[in-house]
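note to self — DONT lose this again. spent like an hour looking for the file last time. sequence + predicted structure for the chain T wanted, 437 res
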Amino acid sequence: MSIKPMLNIRSGTGDGRHTLVIQLIRERRRGVIFTPYRLLPEEFDAARRKAVVTCRRKTHLAFIREVNLFLENQRQELGRIVSELEREGRPFTVHDVTSAYRQRYDNRYVHTFFRRQIEDLRKAGALGTANKYKATLVAFEKFAGLRRVDFDSVDENMLLDFERYLRQIPLSPNTVAFYLSNFRAVYNKAQKRGYVTHDRSPFRAVPVHIQKTRKRAVSAEVIRRVATAEFPDSDKLNRARDLFMFSFYTRGMSFVDMAYLRQEDVRDGFVRYRRRKTGQVYTVRIIPEVQTILDRYREQCAPWALPVLLDYGEDGLLHPLVFEGATSDERLRFETKLYLRYKYSLSHYLRSLRSMRRRLDLPVGLSFNVARHSWASLARRQGVPVSIISVGLGHTSEKTTQIYLDELDNSAVDAANETVAGLLKKSGTPWGKNRKK
């Protein structure tokens, strides 16, 4: 394979400059890769196939160095592509080489690599992460304007400018951190795949800080009032109450995990599920209050355990969403439909919880995070060790939690769960009292 940089003389402009191209020849077939550089004829040595200095200005010297470094990197990249194609043992053409190169080269641009990550995530069914990356890309493209930014151009100054731009929108500090952390995740992926030519990450100088938010826990009295509330005139408020309490009774199960919980995940007296956020598997012993809620929706929600992934049918009634296709494309469309229904149901139930607060005249607002934080807070007040609470909540990103995950038996967490659930009854017993040894 012949790889030769040259000037595209036929593409000259009024200033006398010509586009620098890389010509590839294999088996008498020719391919051309256009570079982003344009040179005067005297700035390129056709024999040595490299740019040459024509004056001693610092800007000119820097430009020539940049061009030659670019050419050297591209030669190496093309050589790697040819070696990979040869190792596959299949015939290939010069078109195969240029196509592979363009795909890799395009991935060096932020917007291109972001879009491919979003597309791959959607194909894999990771719609939540795909939407987070999409929101981050939209914000960055508004910041960048007409600039086509490659990853090598992303430095500390650009990140600081991006951060300043987000703050001036204005966005809250944690929303700014949300965008920066997503950008860092994609940048790290691009760096691992070789689309960043240097090793140093600009995020070392621009750390991402999440500010602590106000605690959302409520008292046992508030939880008790929700648990015993009845709404004869509103099925939606009753369902919202059940979901709120289900989260509380299952050690703060998140709404997304409740939404995707299947009846097959409930067996032998336990709820076993995989957290969609972390991928870890959790096992929760079913206490009577949880069983009552599960039994209430068993017939109308199958195969789902709870009334979340339901939609109205032609009869005007709610029916569970069930996959009836056969192909992978149909499965992808169904997963997208499930995700959209989950997002809609989350908004719907949060509105219902706000209505419930008004109906019950509660002093604080309700959300599924409130159920989660309240379980932890009430457990702590009963003297449950922090290590057990951490395991119960699944705080696997914390080093202390990771230590206790290896040491604690799940039965200890289940015992803590029964203690917290017992606080809603008059006969609740403090942690450690009458506990089975």
